[in-house]
């Protein structure tokens, strides 16, 4: 039996689910594998952070269903998306769930994988470039640095309702560069928690809005100035907050940005 295709009958693919990373926005930042999988899809469930320009890779028979789920906006409930995905795959269809960034980073993949497992449907993750990597590119800096940050933590600013917040004190003590996803609405709380845990008010923070997309902005600030900067610069989602000493060099250079090559 083919591991990617259990239950296939002669000449016909069994239905299955692909959780595909669309990358951070720039339609060139997608993998060749994702492009191939889009080409064989019968159904594409399109996340609203996935660039719809990527649909040019879809085959002619693909049915596209938009299932945006942005926090706070009109959204398709996760349970509905999961049911739809399983139903279509059970009918023998190739279902592609196209998600922004990497499906394994704050992508609600656990529920979807679990539903496939319970329904006996083959499911595979096709990794993508996560927004933290696109933010590093926008900043022209690595997220890790031998002198300042031995590692990086991806954290959510927006815990599951009723769920525990990230342990900000432990993160503050870790010396890791922090990349905070979904952190805009709770930025004040996050900055306060890091300050209370002993991080200096002048610790560099970069707000990276629309990383890799037209209108991308890199806004330098500090832990103490974060909340005010978000308001004064009218920062909008999607954006990540990058926090840590590893940014010192990058932010000093914002006044004199790295000349990016750009491939026409
Ligand atoms: N799976 C995605 C993250 C989904 S959570 C990934 O790997 O990137 C949604 C959050 O991702 C947004 O609230 C924002 O914090 C971040 N995000 C997504 N696209 C972004 C972009 N182009 N620029 C900056 N942040 C982005």
Fold blueprint:
Elements: E1 16-21, H1 32-39, E2 43-46, E3 63-66, H2 78-90, E4 94-99, H3 109-119, E5 122-126, H4 131-139, E6 152-156, H5 168-174, E7 177-181, H6 187-196, E8 204-209, E9 217-222, H7 226-232, E10 239-243, H8 248-252
Parallel strand pairs: 1-4, 1-5, 2-3, 2-4, 6-7
Antiparallel strand pairs: 7-10, 8-9, 8-10
Helix pairs in contact: 2-3, 5-6
Bound molecules: S-adenosyl-L-homocysteine.
Average the pLDDT over all residues and give the rounded result.
89
Low-pLDDT stretches are: 1-10
Q: CATH H level of the largest domain: which superfamily?
A: Tetrapyrrole methylase, C-terminal domain
> What's the gyration radius in Å?
20 Å
**Order of strands across the biggest sheet?**
3-2-4-1-5
N-end to C-end Cα span: 45 Å
What are the secondary-structure elements, in order, as H or E?
Answer: EHEEHEHEHEHEHEEHEH
- Tell me the total number of β-strands: 10
Bound molecules: S-adenosyl-L-homocysteine
- CATH class group of the largest domain: Alpha Beta
CATH topology of the largest domain: Methyltransferase, Cobalt-precorrin-4 Transmethylase, Domain 2
Helix content: 25-40%
CATH architecture verdict of the largest domain: 2-Layer Sandwich
**What's the helix count?**
8
> What general form does the structure show?
globular
**What proportion of the residues form beta strands (DSSP E)?**
15-25%
Number of domain modules: 2
Largest sheet features: 5 strands, parallel
The secondary structure category is alpha/beta
């Amino acid at each position: 039996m083919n591991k990617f295709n259990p239950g296939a009958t002669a000449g016909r693919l069994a239905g299955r689910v692909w959780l595909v990373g669309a990358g951070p926005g720039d339609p060139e930042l997608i993998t060749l594998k994702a492009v191939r999988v889009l080409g064989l899809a019968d159904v594409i469930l399109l996340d609203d952070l996935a660039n719809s320009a990527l649909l040019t890779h879809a085959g002619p028979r693909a049915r596209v269903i938009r299932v945006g789920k942005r926090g706070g906006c009109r959204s398709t409930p996760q349970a509905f998306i999961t049911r739809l995905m399983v139903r279509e795959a059970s009918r023998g269809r190739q279902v592609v769930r196209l998600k922004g960034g990497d499906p394994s980073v704050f992508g609600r993949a656990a529920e979807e994988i679990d539903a496939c497992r319970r329904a006996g449907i083959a499911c595979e993750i096709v990794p993508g470039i996560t927004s933290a990597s696109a933010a590093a590119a926008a900043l022209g800096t690595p997220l890790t640095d031998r002198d300042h940050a031995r590692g990086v933590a991806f954290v959510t600013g927006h815990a599951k309702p009723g769920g525990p917040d990230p342990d900000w004190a432990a993160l503050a003590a870790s010396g890791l560069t922090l990349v905070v996803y979904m952190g805009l609405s709770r930025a004040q709380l996050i900055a306060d928690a890091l300050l209370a845990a002993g991080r200096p008010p002048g610790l560099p923070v970069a707000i990276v809005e629309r990383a890799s997309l037209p209108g991308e902005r890199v806004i330098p600030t500090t832990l103490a100035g974060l909340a005010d900067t978000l308001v004064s610069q009218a920062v909008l989602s999607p954006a990540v907050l990058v926090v840590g000493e590893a940014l010192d060099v990058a932010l000093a250079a914002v006044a004199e940005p790295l000349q990016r090559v750009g491939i026409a």
